[in-house]
Automatic annotation (TrEMBL):
Single annotated GO MF: methyltransferase activity
Protein name per Swiss-Prot or TrEMBL: Methyltransferase domain-containing protein
Keyword line: Methyltransferase, rRNA processing, S-adenosyl-L-methionine, Transferase
Keyword Transferase: yes
Alphabetical list of InterPro entries matching this protein: SAM-dep_methyl-trfase, SAM-dependent_MTases_sf
Domain (S-adenosylmethionine-dependent methyltransferase): residue spans on this chain: 25-309
Gene3D superfamilies registered for this protein in UniProt: Vaccinia Virus protein VP39
Gene Ontology BP annotations: methylation; rRNA processing
Natural source organism: Vibrio aquaticus
């Protein structure tokens, strides 16, 4: 990356921060390759905290120029207007993704809002802080289309789709994820929003060994599939996604819908469309949901792909 390109970064951050609602937002997405020389840099606004992430080793002049620019931003009228409290640089390329607090005191577990719903994040201790911001429109779609539905949320993580579904009037959501810790955070996210936990199930299972338990709580009117691209020992995208798709006809209610997601730049939308034709031909491709504009990518097929089937 190039320190000479950092004025473009700060111009974009200032523009987007100025326009940002009082919600969590991506302010700069270098990984969309729209800004030459800044491809490994992102910046998120966490309602008072600015989180800058660097994904590839850079030289010292780049780091110093970045820090100086952040100091200048912290002294601006905009920073005061937005009630900025902390600035953090996270070195995602380094082991453990260490964070350096440049300003203020980092709130490691802030409660933020997105589309009127509350989520608790976990910043600075993990690579991911508990809510994938590029999935905002996907959660919005679920919220708008979940009324009176029985929803299955596979690879639920911290249950963002589940929170959106219950907020949208779903009768029940079944969350499945191997990580019981992530599901516990999902339970807290539901509580933050005042939801009836009796409507939500949390299954800390290996999906591939638990189809019987999952099927027992169906049939489902809506199934959301949002797996990691790779999870050591449990999931490899190109090998295992089809194993899920072939189960869908036995799980779906008549007229049921599927939101299938993939966020690997190595595969395109056609990977899911062809996989569904092969494994569950009863289901038809309807549309690809848009990504939020702040996540624009020079190649849309390299970014998040959220596909709807019925």
């Amino acid at each position: 990356m190039q320190a000479t390109k950092l004025p473009i970064f700060f111009e974009q951050v200032n523009q987007r921060l100025s326009a940002a609602p009082n919600e969590v937002r991506r302010l700069f997405h270098g990984r969309g390759r729209q800004f030459e020389g800044l491809e490994q840099l992102t910046c998120d606004w966490v309602q008072g905290q600015l989180i800058v992430a660097i994904f590839k080793q850079v030289d010292e002049p780049f780091i110093e120029a970045l820090k100086q620019g952040l100091v200048t931003l912290s002294e601006s009228e905009l920073w005061q207007q937005k009630q900025g409290q902390a600035m953090v640089v996270q070195y995602r390329f380094a082991e453990g993704a260490p964070s350096e607090v440049l300003l203020g005191e980092l709130d490691h577990q802030p409660i933020v809002e997105e589309s009127g719903l509350k989520y608790q994040l976990n910043i600075g201790r993990n690579q991911n802080f508990g809510l994938f911001l590029d999935m905002r429109f996907g959660r919005d779609w679920v919220k708008d289309n979940a009324k009176h539905k029985n929803v299955l949320n596979l690879f639920a993580y911290t249950c963002g789709f589940s929170v959106a579904a219950i907020a949208g009037g779903a009768d029940q959501v079944v969350n499945v994820d191997m990580s019981k810790g992530s599901l516990a955070k999902g339970r807290e996210n539901h509580k933050l929003n005042g939801h009836n936990i009796n409507q939500v199930k949390f299954l800390g299972y290996d999906i591939f060994r638990s189809w019987g338990k999952i099927k027992k709580m169906g049939r489902y009117d809506l199934i959301v599939i949002d797996p990691p691209s790779f999870q050591k020992g449990s999931f490899a995208l190109t090998k295992d996604y089809k194993r899920i798709l072939r189960k869908l006809p036995d799980l779906l209610a008549e007229g049921g819908e599927v939101i299938a997601c993939v966020n690997s730049p190595q595969v395109t939308s056609q990977f899911l469309i062809d996989g569904m034709k092969e494994e569950a031909p009863e289901l038809n491709f309807i549309e690809r949901l848009d990504n939020p504009p702040e996540f624009d990518d020079i190649d849309p097929e390299a970014s998040l792909k959220v596909l709807r089937f019925q």
